[in-house]
């Protein structure tokens, strides 16, 4: 047609890049626009999006650093003689992590080049449904036209701007992974899993960390599991200020921050000093500067996210959206990638396969990890009724914890099934080491319609934590002790 | 324990014949005392050694020199095993199962003679019997083997550090032990007669061997020991002959660990007195699909079964289901198909279903599709560990909807990864279903 490109993707993150590269496979002319607006603290990064730069990747690496701290303690029980004291230096870790992330930025640039996808380091906005105006950092403008446009600009952390000092003195996850110096004594007023994960690894590397929660942690997740996760963090050393919310942040001459908050239980006002305040109050879709109104792309009035149908189409023909900024979709890298790929296949590859958002497995990488797939117990009860579901559960102890004398109180798993004859599995929840590795294969089983009897027929691998899932047999209904005993 | 649930009068006879070096252990069998449990714990000790190295790259600082103390580890491991032995004694007691620490052998129909440590004999009769005596490590049958060599029966409670070790064998026991010994900092050599991990996917077996070699373990291929004798003080001299010619080599080691296979404990328990047929060559007991021997009231489970897998979970499942069929009117038989397993070598290997060779043989090369990939665990990036060693492959049967008939993964936490896929294979998963499952990010399993 008259348009320059067959496909233009705005946003070089997980969803955008996957879509662009897939489209290029079909011999199409594809371009990607990626631009990172610096955070209020001035942090910015390269190509790859949230996951690569300020999400999954640095988070998991720093989580690993914390896990290695525990490994150092365990190692002594296993006969390794390590002279005390052992301490952690932030700059060594941060530099290593940042270097790896930069190698990924580079890798993505090379991949786009290899696949002949044109890359523009520009901030895009709509002029009309087929035209994007790109602006470089220096203010140079380029007009790009495309037959199809995919919006995949993701989201950025929100600031609680109604709290005095929040914007000026606080940081977010956008900044945490790029700090050159240790964050020191940290407060994270929080709601979501990313910050629970951050609080977890900060504690693990030896920093004084406090989480402030107004109501419930890990909203949207199974609440019993969420409690166990936070319980573990408390015994691990993370401090929790429950049912509190911050009212102001002030900077002292010493450069330290003074935070004042309200304790809703006691009705009192309290205050303390921190080196860092990291806000984790949610993410907002990055759509403000896209000029969506000019082309009529509809967004959800409450969340600001772009409304799409099952084929990722927006309200405007030829304009699509994938990833974190789409309404009603999980904010996960793998779903964005899959959605982006399938979209490209439908647009250019004669496929009609739609994205299946059901039974998407996920893992929270807290010090004691939590992996899950399918329905939470509450959701299952709400959907089918208490009498129609059966919950099998067990408390277990990972073999590796025994010699290491580690507390396994919160190592727990449960499987929610339909009670009727076939006993199809509705949800699986696992807290323990390597939770992601454990859950992945079972997610596949659930995709195949796995039933409880099929699981029982599966022989366990010994000795692992995952085998306990195949041995689940005590129901919550029975009221019996669900602790696994014996070899 | 399962039978006791159905209010049956149950007795268990357990007795451990000491090893040639005089070693013995408590209730629980091979897995608990000289198998899975101590093996995995020592493997963990070795993994922690690696973790220590990695941790420096992640910012942890501590003294350069870190040494491993064998005694500290072994004591901890033995203490844990002791707690398991105790746990089993208590469990049997609570379930009102009579336990005798005595050697049992058949003396006539429905009759067993039990001889305890002090030689006191007692006779017991029962309606039904279950033979679950398992196996013990095989010896080479060469001069000096029983006198100087240890086996896995001795290794996990060895009261001194094994030092420079020669591991004879290429079984998973041999490679797992060689692996963790090297991980603890010891000088390890593995002497292999022919191939590694017979019965396992050979492509993967070779990758495992390669990884071990790259990480400091020496391999002497196509040699077998012909004599073991005392060498310089504190050392053993091993003389070995090539399997391909007349070449003779010699070497000196502090410890020689034999891991060349296991023999069923079926030859001295009076099976001939009651007519239970065994495979004369292997000593294993053939059973039908209900674990019944040729004598209707005598059953068998576990490592001694012919043509079945030598795995703890299989033995447990078979034992439980057998009892449920006998006493609870159940009909479920143990499903021996697609049993997953994991080899805990330094680079762990999880598998379920057909090896590539077995799939080619069963279905024909043109009827299978093998999807494979190397991968780099995220946790290995920062410490710059091997970036192209971890590997995964699935074998699909094209005509049957591209059903997944074999799953293989080589990488960290292979057991945890494999378990769920085994469940999916049990549900008949196809390649398409695999493709449509979303990954968890960032993990190896995705």
What does this structure look like?
The complex is a heterodimer of chains A (487) and B (446). Chain A has 487 residues and is α/β, with parallel strands linked by helices. Chain A has helices at 14-25, 49-54, 56-77, 90-114, 166-169, 173-176, 193-204, 223-236, 292-295, 333-348, 377-384, 399-404, 435-447, 452-457, 467-470, and strands at 5-10, 30-33, 80-81, 87-88, 118-120, 123-128, 131-135, 141-151, 155-157, 186-190, 209-213, 239-242, 244-251, 257-263, 268-274, 276-277, 283-285, 319-321, 362-364, 370-374, 389-395, 412-418, 425-431. In chain A, strands 1, 2, 5, 6, 7, 8 and 18 form a 7-stranded mixed sheet that branches. A 5-stranded antiparallel sheet of chain A has the order 19-20-23-22-21, sandwiched between helices. The model of chain A has no long low-confidence stretch (mean pLDDT 95). By secondary structure, chain B is an alpha/beta fold. Chain B is 31% helix and 25% strand. Chain B contains 14 helices and 24 strands. Chain B has helices spanning 2-5, 29-34, 36-57, 70-94, 145-148, 152-155, 172-183, 202-214, 271-274, 312-327, 356-363, 378-381, 414-426, 431-435; strands spanning 11-13, 60-61, 67-68, 98-100, 102-108, 111-116, 121-125, 129-131, 135-137, 150-151, 165-168, 188-192, 218-221, 223-230, 236-242, 248-253, 255-258, 262-264, 298-300, 341-343, 349-353, 368-375, 390-397, 403-410. Chain B has a 5-stranded parallel sheet. Chain B starts with a helix and ends in an 11-residue tail after the last helix. The mean pLDDT of chain B is 96. Chains A and B meet through α3, β3, β4, α4 and α10 of A and α3, β2, β3, α4 and α10 of B. Chain A: Residues 5-340 form the FAD/NAD(P)-binding domain. Chain A: NAD(+) binds at residue 282. Chain A: Its cofactor is FAD.
């Amino acid at each position: 047609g008259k348009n320059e490109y067959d496909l233009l993707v705005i946003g070089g993150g997980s969803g955008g890049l996957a879509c662009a590269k897939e489209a290029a496979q079909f011999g199409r002319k594809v371009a990607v626009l990626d631009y990172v607006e610096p955070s209020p603290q001035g942090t910015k990064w390269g190509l790859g999006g949230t996951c690569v730069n300020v999400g999954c990747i640095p988070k998991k690496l720093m989580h690993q650093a914390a896990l290695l701290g525990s490994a150092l303690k365990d190692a002594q029980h296993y006969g390794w003689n390590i002279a005390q004291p052992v301490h952690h230096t932030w700059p060594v870790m941060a530099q290593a992590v940042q270097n790896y992330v930069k190698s990924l930025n580079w890798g993505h640039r090379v991949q786009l080049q290899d696949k002949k996808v044109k890359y523009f380091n520009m901030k895009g906005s709509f002029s009309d449904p087929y035209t994007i105006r790109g602006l470089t950092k220096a203010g140079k403008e380029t007009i790009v036209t495309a037959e199809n446009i995919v919006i995949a600009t993701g989201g950025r952390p929100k600031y609680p701007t109604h709290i005095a000092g929040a914007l000026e003195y606080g940081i977010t996850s956008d900044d945490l992974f790029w700090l050159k110096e240790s964050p020191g004594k940290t407060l994270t007023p929080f709601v979501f899993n990313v910050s629970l994960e951050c609080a977890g690894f900060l504690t693990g590397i030896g920093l004084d960390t406090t989480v402030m929660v107004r109501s419930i942690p890990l909203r949207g997740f199974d609440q019993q599991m969420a409690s166990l996760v936070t319980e573990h963090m408390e015994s691990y050393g993370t401090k929790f200020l429950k049912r509190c919310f911050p009212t102001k942040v002030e900077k002292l001459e010493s450069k330290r921050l003074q935070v004042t908050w309200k304790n809703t239980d006691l009705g009192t006002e309290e205050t303390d000093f921190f080196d860092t305040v990291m806000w984790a109050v949610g993410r907002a879709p990055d759509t403000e500067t896209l000029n969506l109104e000019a082309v009529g792309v509809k967004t959800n009035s409450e969340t600001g996210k772009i409304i799409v149908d099952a084929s990722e189409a927006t309200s405007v023909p030829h304009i699509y959206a994938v990833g974190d900024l789409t309404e009603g979709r999980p904010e996960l890298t793998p779903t964005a990638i899959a959605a982006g790929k399938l979209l490209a296949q439908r647009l250019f590859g004669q496929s009609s396969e739609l994205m299946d958002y059901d039974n998407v497995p996920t893992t929270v990488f807290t010090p004691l990890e939590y992996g899950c797939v399918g329905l939470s117990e509450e959701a299952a009860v709400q959907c089918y009724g208490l009498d129609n579901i059966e919950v099998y559960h067990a408390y277990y102890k990972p073999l590796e914890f025994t010699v290491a004398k580690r507390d396994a109180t919160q190592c727990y798993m449960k499987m929610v099934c339909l009670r009727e004859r076939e006993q199809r599995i509705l949800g699986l929840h696992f807290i323990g080491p390597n939770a992601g590795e454990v859950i992945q294969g079972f997610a596949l089983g659930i995709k195949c319609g796995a039933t409880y009897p099929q699981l029982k027929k599966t022989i366990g691998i010994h000795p692992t934590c995952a085998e306990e899932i195949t041995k689940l047999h005590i129901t919550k209904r029975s009221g019996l002790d669900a602790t696994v005993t014996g070899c | 324990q399962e039978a006791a649930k159905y209010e049956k009068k149950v007795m268990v006879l357990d007795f451990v014949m000491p090893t040639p070096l005089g070693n013995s252990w408590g209730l629980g069998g091979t897995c608990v005392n000289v198998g899975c449990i101590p093996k995995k714990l020592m493997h963990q000790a070795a993994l922690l050694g690696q973790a220590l190295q990695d941790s420096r790259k992640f910012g942890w600082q501590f003294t350069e020199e870190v040494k491993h103390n064998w005694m500290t580890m072994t004591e901890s491991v033995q203490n844990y095993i002791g707690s398991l032995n105790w746990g089993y004694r208590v469990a049997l007691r609570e379930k009102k199962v009579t336990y005798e620490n005595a050697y049992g052998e058949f003396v006539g129909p429905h009759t067993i003679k039990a001889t305890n440590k002090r030689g006191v004999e007692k006779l017991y009769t029962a309606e039904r019997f279950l033979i679950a005596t398992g196996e013990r490590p095989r010896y080479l049958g060469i001069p000096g083997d029983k006198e100087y060599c240890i086996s896995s029966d001795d290794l996990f409670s060895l009261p001194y550090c094994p030092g420079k070790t020669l591991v004879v064998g290429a079984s998973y026991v041999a490679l797992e032990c060689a692996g963790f010994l090297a991980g603890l900092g010891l000088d390890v050599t593995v002497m292999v007669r022919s191939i590694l991990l017979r019965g396992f996917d050979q492509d993967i077996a070779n990758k495992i061997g390669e990884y071990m070699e790259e990480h400091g373990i020496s391999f002497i291929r196509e040699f077998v020991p012909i004599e073991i004798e005392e060498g310089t003080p504190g050392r053993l001299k091993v003389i070995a002959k090539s399997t391909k010619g007349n070449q003779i080599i010699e070497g000196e080691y502090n410890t020689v660990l034999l891991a060349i296979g296991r023999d069923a404990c079926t030859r001295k328990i009076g099976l001939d007195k009651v007519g239970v047929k065994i495979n004369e060559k292997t000593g294993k007991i053939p059973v039908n699909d209900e674990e019944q021997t040729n004598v209707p009231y005598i059953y068998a489970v576990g490592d001694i079964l012919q043509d079945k897998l030598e795995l703890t979970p299989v033995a447990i499942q078979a034992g439980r289901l057998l009892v449920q069929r006998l006493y609870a009117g159940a009909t479920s038989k143990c499903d021996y198909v697609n049993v997953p397993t994991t080899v805990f070598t330094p680079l762990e290997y999880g598998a379920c279903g057909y090896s590539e060779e077995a799939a080619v043989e069963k279905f024909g090369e043109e009827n299978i599709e093998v999807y494979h990939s190397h991968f780099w665990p995220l946790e290995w990036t920062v410490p710059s560990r091997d970036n192209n060693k971890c590997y995964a492959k699935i074998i699909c049967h094209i005509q049957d909807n591209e059903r997944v008939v074999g799953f293989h993964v080589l990488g960290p936490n292979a057991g945890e990864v494999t378990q769920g896929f085994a469940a999916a294979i049990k549900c008949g998963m196809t390649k398409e279903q695999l493709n449509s499952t979303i990954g968890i990010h960032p993990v190896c399993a995705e």
